[in-house]
Specification:
Elements (H helix, E strand, L loop, with lengths): L1 H17 L28 H16 L1 H26 L3 H26 L2 E5 L4 H34 L6 H10 L13 H9 L5 H26 L14 E5 L3 H11 L20 H15 L3 H6 L5 H30 L6 H12 L4 H14 L8 H10 L1 H13 L9 H12 L7 H25 L1
Antiparallel strand pairs: 1-2
């Protein structure tokens, strides 16, 4: 019955309150949902994941000094608990290999975009106004579909902060995360990892654009409109008599070439181009090798003035790497248990249920595997297999409303928390490095996600998926 899955999701979040694209040449499978029932983990193994979420939420608030010095040890230690459980108890090497491949692909993309965009310096010498900021965010939303939410976030967050240097407030960064780092990238498979995984599985490249734009556009404008109202109430810096000449400066032009190489490398996967060789049994492919090379070469050849102007350092990507290494390991049991229940109950679930289930879990789990888990469950309603491209294409026609609900939810709800999508944490780290006091994990949710994103999400559900 439908209530069973809802109950499981509610129970997962109640427990939590108390306590990218995957390379197709790794194992021939992109998702971990095809597990035999006897290999399902004990539900108690969700505990390391919940503990890590609690540590991420409370560490910077209640024990900041300890957390800043020891978060790598905490994250890796909790991840090792899950790894050892799968190796020794379940003897399931496949799930671990798959998760490692996911993580390497995830960190290769984020780190290459982070370093390549870090060598690009954009200076806009003009006064920050609510209208200009709103136009800037809309530009960022469109750009997210061309170079991905990570690329757009890393390229634009620093100039956005500098434009608003006299009136910067936490809400500027939060709405940047909402729009540029998440919602904006919902129109193309390049925009966000879940959509790219759908493309690898057989969803036509332009299906997302043609089926999501009429939801994306009003939602983007609505969220920007809310930002405009908030920004209009911000009178800070109005007395500053700084002279502005409207000059636009761009340094690090050659790094645009590196961004182009990264975007082309995204498609170097056997699932997309049949003649691309796989590198199995290694948990990475040609794509990841190219991206890590871009990290090294783009940094070594970067414009020194651009790096200095951006106050570039590796701390943000280091923090993301350590924390998400733990997240990718500890979330394996949660994803498998959720996937098992979703598949079992797939026939009783409607588009609205898939929308909320995919969305709420994407806010706390990596949205890419969450997307695949619920895509598989939805296809099960039609007797189709997510591992067969021809059947995925058939589902695009037969189950379009389900695919639409899952796609929108996976991308939009990634903005619900700092860990909902990779760029979120990086934007937070860069902002804190610039001296902006960002809200804690729970404050982010309570002050911004619940009052802004939840009403918008309910509106989407009422209009399109109810």
């Amino acid at each position: 019955m439908k209530s069973r899955l809802i109950f499981i999701i509610c129970l997962f979040f109640l427990n939590a309150a108390f306590i990218f694209p995957v390379s197709g040449n790794i194992t021939g499978e992109l998702n971990s949902i095809e597990q035999a029932n006897h290999n399902l983990p004990d539900p108690i193994m969700i505990a390391p994941f919940v503990l890590l979420l609690v540590a991420i939420a409370t560490g910077p608030v209640f024990y900041r000094h300890f957390w800043e010095h020891h978060y790598p040890k905490i994250s890796i230690s909790l991840g090792l608990i899950t790894v050892l459980y799968y190796l020794i108890i379940l003897k399931d090497l496949h799930s671990l290999t798959h998760s490692l491949a996911e993580f390497l692909s995830f960190i290769a993309l984020l780190s290459s975009l982070f370093v390549a965009s870090g060598g690009i310096l954009i200076r806009i010498n003009r006064k920050a106004t609510p209208l200009f900021n709103s136009i800037f965010l809309l530009f960022g939303a469109v750009t997210s579909n061309l170079i991905g939410t990570t690329g757009a976030s890393m390229l634009l967050i620093r100039p956005f902060i500098k434009i608003n240097k006299d009136r910067i407030a936490p809400y500027h960064i939060i709405f940047f995360i909402f729009i540029v780092s998440n919602i904006g990238g919902a129109l193309t498979p390049i925009g966000d990892p879940p959509l790219f995984l759908g493309f690898l599985r057989g969803v036509p490249f332009f299906w997302v654009l043609s089926n999501v734009w009429y939801i994306w556009l009003p939602v983007t404008l609505l969220v920007i409109g809310i930002f405009y109202v908030l920004d209009s109430l911000n009178k800070k810096g109005e007395q500053e008599e700084t002279a502005y000449d409207g000059k636009f400066e761009f340094k690090g032009l050659k790094n645009l070439i590196f961004l182009g190489i990264i975007l082309l490398a995204v498609f170097l996967d056997p699932a997309v181009i049949s003649w691309i060789p796989g590198l199995g049994p290694f948990p990475f492919g040609i794509r990841e090798i190219i991206m890590f090379l871009v990290v090294y070469i783009s940094y070594k050849t970067a414009d020194a003035e651009a790096l200095k102007g951006n106050e570039f350092d590796f701390e943000p990507i280091k923090e993301v790497a350590y924390l998400f290494a733990g997240i990718f390991a500890t979330m394996i049991p949660a994803l498998q248990l959720i996937a098992h229940e979703a598949r079992a109950m797939g026939e009783q679930l409607n588009a609205g249920t898939f929308y909320w289930a995919t969305g709420l879990l994407s806010g706390f789990l990596d949205n890419a595997p969450t997307y695949l888990n619920f895509l598989s469950a939805a296809m099960g309603k039609f007797g189709l297999d997510v591992g067969i491209q021809e059947q995925v294409r058939q589902f695009v026609t037969d189950g379009s409303i389900y695919l639409q609900a899952i796609s929108i939810a996976a991308v939009f709800f990634g903005a619900m928390t700092y860990i909902g999508n990779g760029p979120n944490f990086m934007v937070k780290s860069i902002s804190e490095g610039a001296g902006i006091e960002m809200p804690s994990f729970f404050s982010y949710i309570i002050k911004f996600s619940i009052p802004v994103l939840i009403p918008v999400s309910i509106l989407i559900w009422l209009v399109f998926f109810n």
